Amino acid sequence: MDKVTIVTLSEKKQKREPIVMITAYDYPSAQMVDEAGVDIILVGDSLGMVVLGYENTLPVTMEDMLRHTAAVARGAKRAMVVGDMPFMSYQLSPEQALENAGRFIKEANAHAVKLEGGEEVLDAIKKITSAGIPVMGHIGLTPQSIHRIGGYRVQGRDAEQAEKLKKDAKLLEEAGCFSIVLEAVPAELAAEITGSLSIPTIGIGAGPHCDGQVLVYHDVLGIFQEFKPKFVKRYANLRKEIVDAVSRYADEVRKGDFPDEAHSYR
Predict the structure, then answer these.
(1) Which residue from 66, 132, 122 is spatially nearest to 90, judged by alpha carbons?
(2) Considering 99, 107, 173, 183, which one is annotated as catalytic?
(3) Same domain for 139 and 18?
(4) Tens place of pLDDT for every residue, the chain, 266 residues?
(5) Do residues 263 and 229 both lie within one domain?
(6) Is 95 annotated in the active site?
(7) Is 1 a member of any domain?
């Protein structure tokens, strides 16, 4: 299969072919989701919660993101790899944003970066895209702003919020974003925004009318079970299977059944 690029994604929007995006955070996960045929692998700062055990995404560092993005890039052959810019890696100045975006491309072999926000991050986006680095936008529920928005809440339900989201989406497109993630946005509003843009939208909790969808790897597989947002669909319950497998291993070791002759050298 041909490598997925921003041209591929633009063509999918034009043809109304849904785009599939999923997160992954390490080499074997990237290999598996790539083999499954996803179009985009997002190395999300959600790794702070599902991999590193933080309460939210705010403590995640550039070094965390670069290490995990590089691992994913080594495992992905077809899918586009997008590195998520962590909190305070792009907010200080457009120059800081460009420097850190460049590190994702040079050091971690990402194909693009993602950052959160609307009008307030336009200068950063313009600076990054002017250097030839593709940028994915992200509006709606922006987890790096949870203290400002009051937690993990649906965005755009009132008229003022909805108008701001529509305005921000157009501004992100004009600033050069190649796609935009819409998170926790009412389905009708997401459909309106999607129809107003020439670039693809990727929904997460934004209904069925976006140009694509994204979910977190650990949610899809039923590994992370601390909480389950309304938009999450679990396609497996690997947490139970993993616990059962390790429990059987521990039981065999304690009984002296493992290792047996078949698993020993002579």
Answers:
(1) 122
(2) 183
(3) yes
(4) 699 999 999 999 999 999 999 999 999 999 999 999 999 999 999 999 999 999 999 999 999 999 999 999 999 999 999 999 999 999 999 999 999 999 999 999 999 999 999 999 999 999 999 999 999 999 999 999 988 888 889 999 999 999 999 999 999 999 999 999 999 999 999 999 999 999 999 999 999 999 999 999 999 999 998 888 899 999 999 999 999 999 999 999 999 999 999 999 99
(5) no
(6) no
(7) no
What's the number of domains the chain is made of? 2
Q: How far is CA 165 from CA 115, 118, 137, 158, 204, in A?
A: 15, 8, 12, 11, 15
**Strands 212-215 and 179-183, sheet pairing:** unpaired
- Nearest alpha carbon to residue 97 among 128, 73, 140, 133: 128
* Tokens coding 16: 């109304």
Flag whether 226 is in a domain: yes
- Asked, for residue 202, whether it belongs to a domain, the answer is yes
Residues 90 and 148 in one domain: yes
Q: Are residues 254 and 203 both part of a single domain?
A: no
For residue 55, tell me if it sits in a domain: yes
Query: Are 170 and 193 in a shared domain?
Result: yes
Is residue 153 within 8 Å of 141, Cβ to Cβ? yes
Same domain, 242 and 186: no
Residues 123 and 253: their CA atoms lie apart, in Å, by 59
| Its pTM surpasses 0.90 | yes
User: What does the alpha-carbon distance between residue 198 and residue 210 come to, in Å, rounded to a whole number?
Assistant: 12
User: Residue 203 pairs with which residues in a beta bridge?
Assistant: 182, 213
Domain boundaries, position 132:
6-235
CB count within 10 Å of CB 196 equals: 12
